Amino acid sequence: MQYDNSDNSGIVKLIEAQKNLNEVYFVCFTNKRNESYRKTLEETLIKNADTIKYLRIGWNPTTKILSHLVNLISLDISVSLSIVTNWSNLERVSLPFLKILRAQLVPSKILTSLIENTKGHLTEISILYEGDDNRRLIQAIYQNCPNLIYLKLLFNNNNILELEELLTKCQYLSGLVIFTDELNEPDWNDLFEILAKSSPIGLFRFKFSSIWSLKLLESLKLLFDNWKGRHPILLQTIPIDKYYTNIEAELQLQLQKQTEDLIKIYKMKGIIKKYDTDLNEAIFEEFEWIQKKSVAYLMGS
After folding, report:
1. Record's InterPro entries (predicted)?
2. Domains of the chain
3. What does the DSSP assignment read for 120-183?
4. How much of the chain exceeds pLDDT 90, in percent?
5. For residue 85, what are the contacts with CB-CB under 8 A and spacing of at least 6?
6. Which end of the chain has less Cβ packing within 10 Å, N or C?
């Protein structure tokens, strides 16, 4: 359902009429705040709390709705307003059966608490824009998510040392998506050395989101050289989409071409099995390395 601040009586009646409400998607397309509208929707959902297993919500909850959704399997919170300061309704929430967690613009402190109050069932975590220092969040992940299969997270020089511990503890990890902050990029040599040294045997699917740089290019070669003897890599790069001057844009194209040439060499050596560039993550699903999004999906996006 699309949220647009209009009269919600029809939606409320529709929800109340459901006998086995399983999935709920509320998508917000406006920055206008209407607490009473959201509160009414959430209170109506609470009446169906026992059957709801999948929730996608486009705002910071205005009620304690999550405390009632004890059977929730998948939670997706994408907050459109980064100025939100009151997160009390997400504090001390326990979701014992949660397997999938996606969050955007939710503070790492809140997410840390949420992960600590799961029961080890999380297999998929995707978190973006949770703040610069997320070391405690990463610790919560490797201490509480032994069955983790897919992870998408921001890494920088503040938390890179936690990556090795995560790779050691999360032995079922199969796909890793690393986003970076151009103002605080990780030391790529250190990051790739950790990946080559500590990745569990089933981890060979990687996505890296970054601005092209000579340093990144040189470090990729280091990763590929150190990957010999392991399962061939499925690799995707997600260039950061930003404004470039003509000179900067030309340099980015040159670096991208050099990277693609380097990857061709390591494909021939059997180090890389498949490589794609996915600007804005428009071609592939978040944790997909083989199957592209459908034509209908791409045309509608």
Report:
1. LRR_dom_sf
2. 1-148 (3.80.10), 176-281 (no CATH)
3. S---EEEEESS-S--HHHHHHHHHH-TT--EEEEE--TTTHHHHHHHHHH-TT--EEEEE--TT
4. 52
5. none
6. C
